[in-house]
Amino acid sequence: MLITDTVTLVGDRRTTQDGYLVAAARIARTGVQTYSGAEMGRSDLAAVRVWRPEEEVFAADALASMAHRPVTLDHPAEPVTAANWKAHSVGQVGGEVARDGDYIRVPLVLMDRAAVDAVIAGKRQLSVGYAAEIDWTPGTTPAGEAYDAVQRRIRANHLAVVDAARAGPACRIGDAWSTAAPIAPAAPADEVAALRTALEARDGEIAALTARLRDAELTPVRLDEAVAARAVLLAEARRIGGQGLAVDGLGEAGIRRAAVAARIGDAAARDMSDAAIEGAFRVLAAPAGPARPDPLRQVLAGRQVAGDARAEALRRRDARLAQAWRSTIGSPAA
């Protein structure tokens, strides 16, 4: 059975620079509510008192059905579906459905100009359109209130902005935009502060995400650096794993793993973590054994420098030895 309940939007609300109306709303409650017999399919009854127990209102499936519902201006004559959503929707309920005492609270946004204007002009109550099973067993609530039937398996279809309320003044849109309409009771200060803090936190998240996107932007300089770094990595990987190493489509970690596996074997590399692979790659990429001698360094090391006392002494010694044989000719035998 498709049923509608009417409540009134309350809590913190604001209009965005694009003209959308953003608010937090109490949209449903527990307790006994009175419906006409015709609404309940009982034309034989003038009125029907229906109990909505909290185990039904706050059931996980019931709460989940309230999220991401279309918002309409008045109730359409048919359930809202993907086939007619464009014709009926003026906004949407958010996904953060929560219990608020005896009520269900949701975030919502109105994006249609006519709907926003209607709320500002005083049309600020909300009516949930939903399907439910009706248990026609009468009884009395734990609080002592008599009822004729019980609602079970509640599943929301849409949320309508309407003129008349069923759930009472505790749930309504406030009168922040119009002084011509009666002033509505304000939400408790702690609720307003909490909602404002949540909105400010979201603004901070948006700013941080924008900065992260800016930092991740691929500029020409960053592209050149990335290409150069990949070229160095590929050269090292092919020196380790061979020129035929297949690395097409691999990221940096994949390239290192392929090179290490080619050198030490797939079986040995298969169970190694990325950190272990990186360590093995670093070792395999390092030059093996002592460095080859540098011929230029050797020449420079043996070169004599003018004014070098050691070199001058060696030169004189060599000259003296070269003439020493002359002094032994014709000398008497020992």
Protein architecture, described:
By secondary structure, this protein is an alpha+beta fold. The protein folds into two domains: 2-186, no CATH class; 220-285, no CATH class. The chain is built from eleven helices and 13 strands. The strands form two sheets. Strands 1, 2, 3, 4, 5, 6, 7, 8, 9, 10 and 13 form an eleven-stranded mixed sheet that branches. Strands 11-12 form a two-stranded antiparallel sheet. A hairpin with a 5-residue loop joins β11 (139-140) and β12. α7 packs across α9. The radius of gyration is 42 Å and the shape is elongated. The model is unreliable at 6-10 and 167-187 (pLDDT under 50).
Please write out the topology.
Layout: E1 2-8, E2 13-15, E3 21-29, E4 31-36, E5 47-52, H1 54-57, H2 60-66, E6 70-73, H3 85-88, E7 89-93, E8 98-100, E9 103-110, H4 113-120, E10 125-135, E11 139-140, E12 146-147, E13 149-162, H5 189-215, H6 220-241, H7 252-264, H8 266-270, H9 274-285, H10 295-302, H11 309-323
Parallel strand pairs: 5-13, 6-13
Antiparallel strand pairs: 1-10, 2-3, 3-9, 4-5, 6-7, 7-9, 8-9, 10-13, 11-12
Helix pairs in contact: 6-7, 7-9
**N-to-C SSE series?**
EEEEEHHEHEEEHEEEEHHHHHHH
* Gap between N and C termini: 142 Å
User: What level of helicity do the residues show?
Assistant: 25-40%
Structural class: alpha+beta
Q: Averaged pLDDT, please?
A: 78
Q: Could you give a short account of the major beta sheet?
A: 11 strands, mixed
Q: Tell me the β content.
A: 15-25%
Spans of at least 5 consecutive residues whose pLDDT stays below 50 are 6-10, 167-187
